[in-house]
Every structure is written in structure tokens, then in C-alpha cells.
Protein: Thiamine pyrophosphokinase
Organism: Ananas comosus
Amino acid sequence: MEVMTHASTFLLPPSPPSGSNGHPLTYALVVLNQRLPRFAPLLWSHARLRVCADGGANRIYDEMPRLFPDQDPLDVRNRYKPDVIKGDMDSIRDDVKEFYSNLEVKIVDEADDQDTTDLHKCVAFICDNRPTLDKSNQLCILVAGALGGRFDHEVGNINVLYRFSNTRIVLLSDDCLIYLLPRTHSHEIFVLKSVEGPHCGLIPAGAPSASTTTTGLKWNLDDTAMSFGGLISTSNIALEEKITVLSDSDLLWTISIRHPNKKI
Ligand SMILES: Nc1ncnc2c1ncn2[C@@H]1O[C@H](COP(=O)(O)OP(=O)(O)OP(=O)(O)O)[C@@H](O)[C@H]1O
Ligand SMILES: Cc1ncc(C[n+]2csc(CCO)c2C)c(N)n1
């Protein structure tokens, strides 16, 4: 079985290409209609394509200038200009729409589709435009503001991980990140201790697992069954720099993101 490796390098400042990086990723960013995480500018700087999901455009317009209080808000808005705004357009404000259309941002109204979420629409758009991104690199979609807030939205955001299970997608909030570990691969997760951990979890959200085996955790699983209503792994601790996971079921991996001023 092929090994899939994972590392949250998007939480570190961008570094010049070293040549030794085995499988570099090309990042795209989706900004949702939730308070921007404090590291939104960092995610933005990693991304080659920046897409706002409907009211996510209000967040960039309103909140990016607040993250740079010493700078002219107009300069900040011109600098953090999305490539695309997409959704059913029931949340973007008129003034925000006008501001970005004057900057010639592509605005795609899909109000006709009331069966998929704005995040789904944005991820589908990015996947359709994958060929125009770097062809030699694998695509990884970062989603800012995906957790916390309304529970139906949170679950809808998690469902997008399953709907697009062949694409790397990372859901982020200020406090944690989540991605899917497809059962088609064994997984090696490299924990970047300066920015993430130690709290972590492995969740059999889509279907129970009859057998999951891990290494590197405080409470490892050894050919263990997991299911909702039975055992799921929450409040686990990442002990090693490398965590390995092998499962007969798709699992969600989640790990805490460190706050600069907090003890853990
Ligand atoms: N409270 C929230 N919690 C988590 N995610 C949210 C929340 N509010 C919005 N989102 C995310 O931001 C996207 C855009 O939300 P927006 O408020 O612009 O439109 P919406 O009409 O509420 O969402 P949708 O059209 O997808 O049902 C949503 O698709 C969802 O992914
Ligand atoms: C069973 C079912 N439940 C809810 C919706 C409504 N819905 C789902 S996604 C979405 C957002 C569109 O931007 C809306 C309104 C539906 N269509 N089907």
C-alpha cells in the first residue's frame, strides 16, 4: 500500500524552494464567512489561488485591515485581493461586491444551485482549474474559518472532505485543523511541534473502522475497532514527531494549533 505523507508546512513562513522537498504542494486558499484565523495572512502568502466563498469576501474586506492596524485599510484591501468570489451570493454585501468588481475580481454567482454549499462550489471550482495551477505539484486546498460557529455548517464543511476524498483539503480554525486520511493509503503525519499539537484525535466519521493501528501517540490503537457509540480517539497526545496511521476506514485526523501565548 502506498504511503501518503502529511505536514502542516503552511503554518510556517514560506521558504524558498530547496530542491530537497520530495513532493511539494501547490496551495489554494478558500476563505469562508467566519472570523478570519489570526494566521490568515500566512495562509494567503502560501496560496497560488485565493477564493472567497460568498460572505468570505466580507471577512477579507472587513478583517484583513484589522490585522494590520498601522496600515491604510485601502492599501491592505488592494494587497489582499481574492482571485475569485464564488457562491450563491446571499451573504456578500453590495459595497464589498462593488469594491471587488471594480478591482476586476472574478465573481461567480451560482444562486441556481441550492443543493451544494458555498464551500463545495469553491472546491469544485479549484479542482476544475487544477490544470492552470502548477502541474508537477500536488494540489492542497486550505480552508480558513471552517470550524466553530454553526454546527450544520461545520458538518457540511467536514462532508466536503468526503465528497472530494481524492483531493487534499485542510479545514482550519484558530484552534485546530482537520483533514481526511483515506483508507486507500497508509499515512505518515509529521508533527511540526513549534506550531501544532500535542492534542489530537482520530475520528471514524463516515463509517466505523474494524481495524486501526497507530504509532507515535500516547494512546495508540493496535488493530482496534472504532465507531460512534463505541471508541473514538479524542484528547489523544502526539508524542513522536512522526505519527503513523493504518486503517480499513477513512478517518478524520485533527490536531490542535498552538497559540503563541498559551502554555499548551
Ligand atoms: N457559522 C459558520 N460555521 C462554519 N462555517 C461557516 C459558518 N458560516 C459560514 N460558513 C462557511 O462559509 C461558507 C459561506 O457562508 P455564507 O454565510 O456566505 O453563506 P451561507 O448561505 O450561510 O452558506 P451556504 O450557501 O453554503 O449554505 C459556507 O458554505 C460555509 O462553508
Ligand atoms: C436535503 C436538503 N437539505 C437542505 C438543502 C438546502 N441547502 C443545501 S446546501 C444549500 C446552500 C446553497 O448555497 C442549501 C440552501 C437541500 N437542498 N437539501
